[in-house]
């Protein structure tokens, strides 16, 4: 149905009633649901001082939806049948516009809905600004659309992304917002570009889940030590449970994650040793995801095992910065590196900052975990903390550690102290 | 791109490209086409800003710590300049408990202080006892008497530690309890390992009888790390087929354990657990002296919206010295909902001040006995002497032994507080409770009859001691019939039944003994132990049969007695079961 057909249909309806409408009134505003470039926007048309003002729901005054709406109102017919929803009229996509009758931008590439949802979110937040975006209807709607595109049971990756972006906006954290939006933007490109690289496919799988989320080669007969466990924000507060497992063969840290109440993660206390006969690991983000398929749990931690953790701890904090940069550059907004460090000593203003052998400090994220940092202070000052595990975060150019656990010495015995 | 340009882009992201205030042409800054769509602007902007941020990342070399301004608000404390208000506090005005030398003062703190002060006072008293040679004998005696009189379940673990170092019967009992606990741990640890190996299906702690679980977990600070990790997994829900009810049972048994190794698991439960689990986790957390506690309780309090839960969280937060929930909880005292009111009164234990005494005292006349009992506990902790006349009146009229016991403890706590405030103890003790109605004296019966009763009693006990249970019971019944007002034969039968785990039979005989001489039963710690164990075990049997209402009735009946002389583990478990059964019934 073309736009003129609305007029014809309206005339027919009036004729069918065999009388002109008796109620007098003036049309002040027209709302059109316009589909263009594979997405639908509402375009509001109104007259301001005799001039036509068209605004699309994406905030644009000159976008394709506005152009299609203007053409339709001007009577410049479009060829393809427009769809009509219950509230308003709509016209067809510009891709189907008759080039002889209406000059329109060239047809946009067909954007997959998930990529579009990501892009819309990025655009909405950048348009409104980090200062005003938290709770803004356009952003809420864009987040809702992203969650909808992720399916009824969204993957941990997308859920975590939504949680992080909400938190970043609530805190008006520009750095975190830019990173997450860059990650979303890059994902949308990964989804759109036809010849996506292997790395891009991994990122998409890590974000949306599904086939390809785990590598084809499983890990066989590995022993893992749980160096940290935390519940983090997803779509809802504390809705993602994460356990960080260190492979005692090579020191690689994996993240075993599940949505709250899920049954995908392994059972067992923290800390623990896991002897995994078979496990599959993800790729593309840091730390890589892991799913244990056959495993045995033990809460008994021998001194030798605990001592062996020393071999995998990072001693030069400048290495952490480099590794962190690499992780973020490959998957911004998705990577949340977890590390085990061996402080040479503790120092700094409050005597609790880990210092490496070169005297460089690694700040502890006291805002995210104020009590945890205080709890670490006393044993750190006494010098009985030899290793600290934690998640790396950054704020305004400073790399920081959010502590999760520590190896402490009590009366000559090593024990793992869970901090979170 | 130079720094100014980057700052402008940053401002664009902060303020939004659609209404950038200072006329920044974001497209020009990004060097993209003036016709570029917002979408492309957004992509370029975030890409550049992120790339620059990542490239400029570094360690905090300059200051070495988190440069962000702390968002954590300072605790909202109530101004209490009294001795008790400053005891254990930091700062110039603070008085350390270890500075207190006077035994009488320590005893008063033990009765009137808040939990941390009472713990510290108990430790200090133990130190005083250790210096028996250097402290006046009278003071040592006073300390020993105070320890003996301390029956607070919250201090059960610390009291046992102190007792274990003492000579005499209390020391022997404490050491025997420690041995029993060690045997229990030795028995359970292999089962815990077998559970994780998949050899045992049932979780070993959850399936323990209540009394043993209470005994095990009251001494949690002594448990090995491996056991604590296991308990953490159970309460977090990471132990497989352990249901929510069993998790709650283990969590509530941990209430007084105060072990910092469990903080992470408790925080996890507070954050992701069901409301019931979260509230129980808060109650346990607030008893742990750990810097992580306050911030998580504060966050939970701030995000909670359901009144009873928020009230409990406000009270828990106050235990850490933050009284910000006071006005909110005071507002809940007008609630018609018994659960909300109960939670508010519980919170007032730590939040309440002298100003609130009148309002709280008004609940002493409530028709709901649970609310009355909670009010008495709250007044005890608030320590305002204006409550004394009302408490004394309530105690005089109390027909239920447990309520009378609560009132006695509350009056003692308030009086102790007045002593610490420097008031004359005699003026505060002007209203002692009258002695409870004593059991009627034994009837005078002919000597021959009396002799026969004694004879049957000893023969009956002899039969039982050599394994002739049926004959022994028959003789003891004859002895009881010979002297109808004599509880001893009945108590012997009941205890013999308890030892043989014939709880239903023991129950009826205990009831007969209570009818004849309640005070005699309540004053005998050995009998009281068997009685509490019988009621507890029988209620568990009934619950297992699905007769929860009857089980709840039994627990309530036991808790209506004055159980202060019963072991802490049993009292704690009975209280815990009452809460559990109350929750589980419609």
Can you put this structure into words, describing what you see?
The complex is a heterodimer of chains A (420) and B (586). By secondary structure, chain A is of the alpha+beta class. Chain A folds into four domains: 3-96, no CATH class; 113-208, no CATH class; 219-300; 308-418, no CATH class. Chain A has helices at residues 3-16, 64-73, 113-128, 130-133, 137-149, 156-170, 174-192, 198-208, 303-308, 317-330, 370-382, and strands at residues 29-36, 39-48, 51-56, 219-232, 240-247, 253-259, 273-281, 290-298, 338-341, 345-347, 353-355, 363-364, 385-395, 398-410, 413-418. In chain A, the strands form four sheets. A five-stranded antiparallel beta sheet of chain A has the order 6-5-4-7-8. In chain A, strands 9, 12, 13, 14 and 15 form a five-stranded mixed beta sheet that branches. A three-stranded antiparallel beta sheet of chain A has the order 1-2-3, covered by helices on one side. In chain A, helix 3 (113-128) runs antiparallel to helix 5 (137-149), helix 3 packs antiparallel against helix 7 (174-192) and helix 6 (156-170) runs antiparallel to helix 7 (174-192). Chain A starts with a helix and ends with a strand. Residues 79-108 of chain A have low confidence and may be disordered. By secondary structure, chain B is mostly helical. Among the domains of chain B are: 3-55; 98-164, no CATH class; 353-436, Leucine-rich Repeat Variant (Alpha Horseshoe); 448-584, Serine Threonine Protein Phosphatase 5, Tetratricopeptide repeat (Alpha Horseshoe), CATH 1.25.40.10. Chain B has helices at residues 3-15, 26-30, 38-55, 83-86, 103-112, 115-130, 137-149, 156-164, 168-197, 210-218, 225-236, 244-253, 263-272, 275-285, 291-303, 307-319, 326-332, 338-351, 357-361, 369-382, 388-397, 401-420, 425-428, 447-465, 469-482, 488-499, 503-522, 525-544, 548-559, 568-584. In chain B, helix 8 (156-164) crosses helix 9 and helix 26 (488-499) packs across helix 28. Chain B is elongated, with a radius of gyration of 30 Å. Classes of the chains: A alpha+beta (420), B mainly alpha (586). The interface between A and B is large, with 87 and 69 residues.
